[in-house]
UniProtKB/TrEMBL annotation:
SUPFAM superfamilies: Ypt/Rab-GAP domain of gyp1p. It comes from Umbra pygmaea (Eastern mudminnow). PANTHER family: PROTEIN BROAD-MINDED, UPF0183 PROTEIN. It is found in: Cell projection, Cilium; Cytoplasm. Residues 870-1301 form the BROMI C-terminal Rab TBC-like domain. It comes from the Eukaryota. Gene3D superfamilies: Ypt/Rab-GAP domain of gyp1p, domain 3. Required for high-level Shh responses in the developing neural tube. Together with CDK20, controls the structure of the primary cilium by coordinating assembly of the ciliary membrane and axoneme, allowing GLI2 to be properly activated in response to Shh signaling. Residues 12-138 form the BROMI N-terminal domain. Keywords: Cell projection, Cilium, Cytoplasm, Developmental protein. This is Protein broad-minded.
């Protein structure tokens, strides 16, 4: 192909133009010509459409036509050449052909032709572009000339037209001439021409010229010129400067504009006509001011993005010039009766930026906020005073002009500053806009410490200065009196109503601790919030413009206050907030709120019978109460009101309403709309949700169980739990704590099982543990876990631990449930219950079970770890052992791990599973505290002997796991206690003996705690219990009239659990060297006596709970403890237990004594929830929050509860957790000092473990640590003083509630 024809050149020119248009954005965005060239050179690499451009396709075709024959010839030549090899990358066939082609004459001719043609094409394009540009410039000049002749007026002050303008260099002499031409005395045409030239000059040159002061003065004068052409031209110059200059330049322009506006307001003093008159934005003077103020406001909102990069003095000048402008006084009081008032800059600012966005942005950053506060405090406090006076004036005028105010609100909410839509604003509308602007400014000030320090403020309308509480009360009253809009236009949100803005302020204050303390947690504020509620409770009509809406807003703020500890304390214990005129006594805020909520639910408020009491409002107030009753201290105050019963009654009524809805019949007229049905469903869910939150505390869970709605609440919780929904807007954590709390009790775990919660956890665990990610493992191989429990399973492991932590839960889930032990397991068969999980992961006693696991070692290790945690609870272990023979299964697995089974106890194969099994076998075989047994580690050690602990496959336990404990000897302290006990005679008749005994006991404990020797503790307990049981005032239960027949005892048989418990107790007693040879028969006889005695005091109940089917479901660890204290003397132990059964202490120290007791109300006995949980554990939670808040928070964060751990400790009398002396001190302290010391003991233990608890909360294994590890280093004597201090603070509350154990719960 030789030369291009004219047609081809024209086509090539058209294709090139298309290409340039396609990549115009890339080229125009290049900062330099060199960059544009780079973009073109690398276009093929960066543009995915490169080969689709018509120009590229044309060139490709041209190259193929020109060089196709040459390429084919060279290819054939290279292929025929003998000895051709492809030894290196430079000698390949492609490179060889390419090199030959580029050296050919055809290639050189093609390139020369293409180059010449492209030069012609490009030159032609340039010529056409220049012609088009000249034509465009000529057209612009003609249009501009027409604009000058017609005095074109532009009503927009935006800086849009300042873009795409070029700057021209200008000399200082020219700027001097321009400054002179801008003198107000010069003709309009001269000044216009000067402004035109000034617009082409760089702003930095203009500001740096010597004549800037003159130029600035003349520009300011031109801004105020009545001719809109001139003032708008200056404004455009300023707008262009703002958009394209540095802060140093824009700061000068901004201050010039602000000073000009300030001078104009001072000189002209525009008036606001009284009455319905106002301002017309089409008036030239108003339009000019409005445009200038708009430019200022636009700059205010944008400058915060970059002023931090410049010196602070620049920012300070901008802020100060703004405050100077806005603080111009009107000289006339608000609401004055004069004919006219002055128009202030703040009126226009409020009209343009009604929510004070500029001020919010200035206050957002600390850099600017500091300067703002400094200037407000030192020189411009008038701005705050004016804003405060505006709010006061609006508040005081609401009563008289409520209808007019509603119209003003509606018009302002629908305002549009545009000549086409809105041109006139009345004085009332301007004042209302000013009020909203002031409200937003004050609300922003209250958010910051420096802003709150500006108060109190002296204002004209009030004699006393206005402090923070006064201001908040004013805002609340504005919300109360704000008229409800009569307009039903739903197309516009109610964002400009005072109610909405006040609520924004109050919510912000409530969510910030420091703000809430200074502004909301004040008596006047709480009184203002409660005033409408108390008025309605009194049967009077509250002065509220919209009762339902306002009460809902009040409830919102009250709920936010109650969420915090400080606010909750204020509600519960501050009794100077509301005065009950009827009874002449003061009430706490909590009492007022709960009474109002009860009457709302019962529809007993006559003033709200007109349809204003809606489910939404009731839900809001229940939510306030919920923030109180989901805490222990809050429930303590609210419990007497029986709110749980009222909510449950409302829920049952709603259920009956939904059940009455008839089935839809085709053709019949529907009686209930779908919206009404939806409302009923929402109301029902809200009531269930609020009932469920009673389960956040132990006593609250008992109250919930008494309502009969526990199963429905747990099912509702499970539905939200599976969707991973938040508990509420005020809760930081999920349902973990609540699930754990519910799982602590027999009815709770049964409800969890019925809801499908247990099955869901088991199935999810199996899918993670066994199924994994098989479908993507090739692409993303799963890393091999170095931990016994993989991180992906840890959360589910902890959930299972929380679920089976309580022996009551284990009994309900596993009681009378045999293991499947199938002969064959389908690989697709998924466990659905805890029994299945034990069968597949723990009791792996056959090859079938081993082969059914994809990850045998990992899964079996998981099961053994779970078993280890479950066996930490002695009653849970006894149940597992009695039903599944866990120890035999583990022993058999250990035997299978022997290298040479024929040699008997030969060498064991030491692997992860054998080490895990060894640890469990030692744990379940040896009983004792931290120094009374040695638990082997579950990890191998470095060195030549990785596991020095002996493995075993049969009993007895190797001696290396049980230390040889010394026999306890008598000491001087023992003698002192013994002397005291023997020195008093007629103890039963001496009323002061008990007080003296307590003093001597504390003295002995504080001097030397080793009083557990010989029979000292036994003698002490005997005398104390005998003394208290003979005093009618101390006797809580009727005296025992027990006479056991020997024949009856012989026929009574003990359960397998009891027999295993007796064997464990005997092993512990023998290791302590406390028992004799006949101890087994004596302990068995004692257990039979206890069961015979307690059976006579048990109610006949019908229940589906496993724990209520037979006798006490676990072993009587307290009776075993007393037996060991009495050194195996059955007669003394029985005598002590019979007398102790008459005391209140027995209801808490001796769980078997209170099981199904006739001394409990029937509904409590049927609940299966013991007083040690609903009372002791409840107050442990309550005291932890007040005394050891870090531990309380750690439990909340971990999803575990202190109540569940205390239930385990107390249920087994601290066996395996404390050494024997401390267990004796626990029993003696509770008997001598009082049953409430059981609470103080648990708090002291948790306080002792604080550092460990915090550490294991961080490592996410708190529950495992607390259950598996003994309580090392704890001495009762070290914490007795602390317990006495707790008694001094809390005995009135704790002991009083303990004494109510035999009364019906309300």
């Amino acid at each position: 192909m030789s030369q291009f024809s004219a047609v081809e050149e024209a086509e090539l020119q058209s294709l090139l133009r298309q290409l340039l248009k396609s990549i115009e954005e890339r080229i125009s965005g290049a900062p330099s010509i060199e960059c544009a060239e780079e973009i073109l050179l690398h276009l093929e690499e960066t543009d995915k459409n490169f080969h689709n451009y018509a120009f590229v396709k044309y060139l490709r075709l041209y190259v193929e036509n020109s060089l196709g024959a040459v390429i084919e010839e060279e290819t054939e030549s290279c292929a025929r050449r003998e000895g051709h090899s492809v030894g290196s990358s430079q000698d390949t066939l492609v490179h060889a052909v390419t090199r030959k082609t580029r050296e050919s004459g055809e290639y050189k001719q093609m390139m020369q032709t293409l180059k010449n043609t492209m030069m012609v094409v490009v030159e032609s394009l340039i010529n056409k572009f220049e012609e088009d540009q000249l034509r465009k410039d000529e057209m612009n000049r003609e249009i501009h000339h027409e604009q000058l002749n017609s005095h074109y007026h532009d009503n927009c002050s935006d800086s849009d037209s300042s873009f795409n303008q070029s700057y021209a260099f200008i000399k200082q002499e020219q700027l001097q001439v321009l400054a002179e031409k801008l003198d107000p005395s010069r003709p309009k045409e001269v000044r216009w021409e000067a402004l035109q030239m000034l617009g082409c000059a760089p702003p930095s040159d203009v500001l740096s010229c010597e004549s800037w002061s003159t130029l600035r003065r003349n520009l300011s004068a031109t801004l105020a010129d009545p001719n809109p052409d001139l003032s708008d031209k200056v404004l455009r110059f300023f707008a262009k400067t703002f958009s394209s200059s540095t802060l140093n330049v824009t700061r000068e322009i901004y201050t010039t504009l602000a000073k000009s506006l300030e001078s104009e307001f001072l000189s002209h003093k525009l008036k606001l006509p009284a009455g319905s008159g106002g301002i017309d934005v089409t008036r030239q003077d108003i339009a000019r001011l409005l445009k200038q103020m708009r430019l200022i406001n636009d700059f205010q909102k944008e400058v915060t993005a970059f002023w931090i990069r410049h010196p602070e003095k620049y920012m300070e000048e901008i802020i100060e010039s703004t405050f100077s402008l806005l603080s111009l006084p009107s000289g006339q009081a608000l609401g004055s009766q004069g004919p006219e008032r002055a128009l202030e800059p703040m009126h226009l600012m409020a009209l343009l930026d009604i929510k004070a966005t500029w001020f919010k942005k200035w206050m957002h950053g600390y850099y600017s906020r500091t300067v703002v506060f400094r200037l407000l405090e030192s020189r411009y406090k008038y701005l705050i005073v004016a804003a405060l006076e505006q709010c006061l004036w609006h508040y005081e005028s609401l009563d008289t002009v409520s209808d007019e105010t509603a119209d003003v609100i509606h018009s302002i909410e629908h305002q549009h500053i545009s000549i086409a839509q809105r041109t006139v604003y009345s004085t009332k509308e301007l004042d209302y806009a000013h009020f909203l602007h002031s409200l937003c400014v004050l609300g922003r000030l209250l958010m910051y410490t420096s802003g709150r320090k500006l108060f109190p403020i002296k204002v004209q309308q009030r004699k006393d200065p206005v402090n923070l509480s006064d201001l908040v009360v004013i805002l609340i009253n504005i919300m109360y009196q704000h008229p409800k809009s009569p307009y039903s236009d739903s197309s516009h949100a109610d964002t400009l109503s005072p109610t909405s803005l006040v609520m924004d302020v109050l919510r912000t204050l409530a969510d910030r601790t420091e703000c809430a303390v200074e502004c909301l947690y004040q008596t006047p504020v709480i009184e203002a919030l409660l005033a409408p509620i108390f008025t309605l409770l009194s049967g009077k009509q509250a002065k509220l413009s919209s009762t339902e809406t306002t009460l809902t807003h009040i409830a919102d703020i009250l709920a936010r206050i109650a969420t915090t500890d400080r606010g909750l304390s204020l509600f519960l214990y501050e009794r100077n907030l509301v005065l009950d005129e009827g009874e002449g006594s003061s009430l706490s805020a909590a009492c007022v709120i709960v009474q109002f909520t009860q009457k709302l639910l019962a529809k007993e408020l006559p003033v709200l019978q007109g349809g204003e009491s809606t489910p939404g409002m009731s839900t809001a107030f229940i939510f306030v109460c919920r923030q109180m009753y989901n805490t222990c201290e809050g429930l303590q105050v609210l419990r007497p009101y029986g709110l749980h019963q009222v909510i449950a009654a409302a829920w049952k009524k709603t259920i009956s309403l939904s059940e009455r809805v008839p089935t839809p019949v085709p053709g019949a007229v529907p009686g209930t709309s779908s919206q009404e049905l939806n409302d009923i469903a929402v109301w029902e869910e809200a009531l269930l949700d609020n009932l469920l939150n009673f389960a956040a505390t132990p006593k609250g869970l008992l109250l919930l169980q008494q309502t009969g709605a526990l199963n429905e609440c747990v099912s509702y919780m499970f539905s939200r739990f599976t969707k991973k929904l938040q508990v509420s807007r005020c809760e930081k954590f999920g349902y973990g704590v609540m699930v754990t709390q519910v799982a602590s009790t027999a009815p709770g775990v049964l409800a969890l099982h019925s809801s499908g919660f247990v099955q869901a956890i088991v199935v999810e665990l199996w899918s993670v543990l066994e199924c994994g990610r098989e479908d993507v493992r090739v692409v993303h191989p799963k890393p091999t876990s170095m931990e016994p429990i993989d991180r992906s399973c840890l959360k589910l492991f902890l959930s299972l631990v929380n679920l089976v932590s309580s022996s009551h839960a284990v009994g309900e889930l596993l009681g009378c449930q045999p293991l499947p032990n199938k002969s064959e397991y389908n690989l697709r068969e998924i466990p659905t219950s805890i029994t299945d999980l034990i069968d597949r992961l723990i009791a792996v006693n056959s090859d079938v079970k081993i082969h059914s696991l994809f990850n045998y070692e990992q899964s079996h290790t998981f099961g053994l770890r779970l078993l280890n945690v479950m066996c930490c609870n002695l009653d849970s272990f006894l149940l597992l052992e009695s039903q599944y023979n866990i120890s035999d299964t583990l022993m058999q697995c250990q035997k299978d791990n022997i290298i040479d089974p024929s040699a008997g106890e030969g060498d064991f194969i030491i692997d992860g599973l054998s080490v895990e099994r060894n640890h469990i076998l030692v744990r379940i075989s040896a009983i004792g505290g931290p120094s009374e047994r040695r638990l082997p580690p579950r990890a191998l050690q470095k060195g030549s002997e990785p596991y020095p602990w002996p493995l075993f496959s049969s009993y007895p336990l190797p001696k290396s796991y049980i230390p040889d404990l010394p026999k306890i000897t008598q000491s001087q302290s023992d003698s002192a206690i013994s002397v005291f006990l023997t020195s008093w005679k007629d103890v039963e008749k001496d009323g002061t003996w008990m007080d003296t005994c307590r003093k001597e006991y504390c003295k002995a404990m504080n001097t030397k705690s080793n009083i557990v020797s010989g029979n000292v503790v036994a003698d002490l307990l005997e005398q104390v219990v005998l003394h208290l049981s003979t005093l009618p005032s101390k006797r809580f239960f009727p005296p025992a009239d027990y006479k056991a027949m020997e024949s009856g005892l012989k026929t009574r048989s003990l359960s397998c659990v009891d027999q295993l418990g007796i064997q464990a107790s005997l092993r512990y007693g023998r290791s302590l060297k406390l028992l004799r040879e006949r101890s087994e028969q004596d302990l068995t006889l004692l257990m039979k006596h206890c069961q015979e005695f307690l059976c006579q005091q048990r109610a006949k109940l019908k229940s589906t709970l496993y724990s209520l089917q037979e006798d006490y479901p676990g072993h009587d660890w307290f009776a075993s403890t007393v037996f060991l204290i009495m050194a195996g003397d059955m007669e003394r132990a029985l005598h002590l237990l019979l007398h102790l059964s008459t005391l209140l202490t027995s209801a808490f120290l001796w769980p078997a004594r209170i099981h199904k007791s006739v001394h409990l109300p029937l509904e409590i006995a049927q609940s299966g929830i013991y007083p040690v949980y609903s009372c002791t554990a409840h107050y442990v939670d309550m005291l932890l929050k007040a005394e050891v808040p870090l531990v309380f928070s750690a439990f909340r964060m971990s999803g575990f509860t202190s109540s569940q751990m205390c239930l385990q400790w107390l249920g087994q009398c601290f066996w395996n957790y404390l050494d024997w002396p401390e267990i004796c001190y626990y029993v003696s302290t509770c008997v001598v000092m009082g049953p409430d010391y059981q609470v103080y003991m648990c708090v002291s233990v948790l306080k002792h473990l604080q550092q460990d608890i915090l550490q294991h909360t961080h490592t996410q294994d708190l529950q495992v640590f607390l259950k598996e590890e003994p309580i090392t280093g704890f001495k009762v004597s070290n914490y007795l003083d602390y317990m006495e201090s707790l008694e001094h603070s809390y005995r009135t509350v704790v002991l009083t509630d303990m004494k109510n154990v035999s009364q019906r719960i309300h």
